[in-house]
Amino acid sequence: MTRLFRTAIVGTGGIAHAHAKSMATLSDRAQVVAAVDIDPGRLAAFCDEWNIPHRYSSLTELLAAEELDLVHLCTPPGFHKGQAIEALGSNVNVLSEKPPALTLSDMDEIAEAEAASEAFFATVFQHRFGSGAENLKRLMGGDDLGRPLAAICNTLWYRPDSYFDLPWRGQWLVEGGGPTMGHGIHQFDLLLSLLGNWSEVTAVAARQALPTNTEDFSAAIVSFENGAVATIINSLLAPKETSYLRFDFSGATVELEHLYGYSDDSWAISPAPGHEDLERQWKEGLTGRASGHSSQFAAIFDALESGGVPPVTSTDSRMTMELIAAIYASAFTRQPVSRGSIDKNSPFYGAMDGNSAPWADVKESH
């Protein structure tokens, strides 16, 4: 008999509804037994909408009252570290919305708490789990596709000034960064999951138009250990929105274009001359599973049921977070940054802006 996991949602803002909706599709695998929010009215409305029986005003209260297998952290980014450490201290598995923490220092503190716990920490990076991404990874394991040569990873989104009315948005201290940290992270996490370890980055970042203390645009050139080179653009300035990834292999070009989630139809393959059979192989590998929270949640419950480690691990997340820190470090120091060079002695280890964003407001100093 399949085990029924007990979960709770912490924070009942917009993204929490995506979690609740996806969990409803997995009712044979797990049940959301409780939710947490400091706003009683919002908490009540959320629990009524999603038929959640138990309501708590704090994570501490929740952990004391409920036997849980997993907590979903749907709170603003600045709360993730403390909440993750508290839940891990109670030996409860944690699934955190992105970004999982504000800094590399925070990530390392979470990893230390995880090492001392019987539970695991995972981050929501749902684009890894659609059948298109898994199909590409499968083909990359064979000989026909060839080696990766170049890639493009563009997150070209648009946010009006009013988007930043929430006080935690667009602030280094409580959001950790702009589109590099909170928006493009999904696309280049998928890029990293496919291309592997990155080795060096050269980047620029700018605050062009939006009322933020963070950047609203960044661009980076990233080299990988396997020899591939990728360009990454993260923007909130594009009225014509798209998320676009392109991988040029020696045997084919593979493209993905979508906005906030993809289906099999979002992908395309263009074989090089002499590699036409790749089109057949590509079509045969698709299973119709779209990217999304429910796809990752199902993978997490599979792992928990088998006694494995839930994806995406803290190590995986740190690789992505380190790239973010390196993009900011390169942009603000105007120097290339190598993976592994941002250590405890670097100003970018404990603050994504390294206290050196050229437009930083005095009130935001660390």
Summarize the structure in words.
The chain is 34% helix and 24% strand. It is built from 12 helices and 14 strands. The model is unreliable at 362-366 (pLDDT under 50). An 8-stranded mixed β-sheet has the order 13-12-11-7-10-9-8-14. It has 366 residues and is α/β, with parallel strands linked by helices. Strand 11 and strand 12 form a beta hairpin.
Write a brief caption for the model.
The chain is built from twelve helices and 14 strands.
- Summarize the helix and strand pattern as letters: EHEHEHEHEHEHEHHHEEEEEEHHHE
What is the distance, rounded to the nearest whole angstrom, between the alpha carbons of the first and last residues? Answer: 52 Å
- Note the beta-strand portion: 15-25%
Q: Order of strands side by side in the largest beta sheet?
A: 13-12-11-7-10-9-8-14
Average of the residue pLDDT scores: 96
Q: What is the CA-atom radius of gyration, in angstroms?
A: 20 Å
Approximate shape: globular
Number of helices: 12
Percent helix, as a range, is: 25-40%
Q: Main beta sheet: strand number and arrangement?
A: 8 strands, mixed
Overall structural class, as computed from helix and strand content, comes to: alpha/beta
Catalogue the unreliable spans. Answer: 362-366
- Strand count: 14
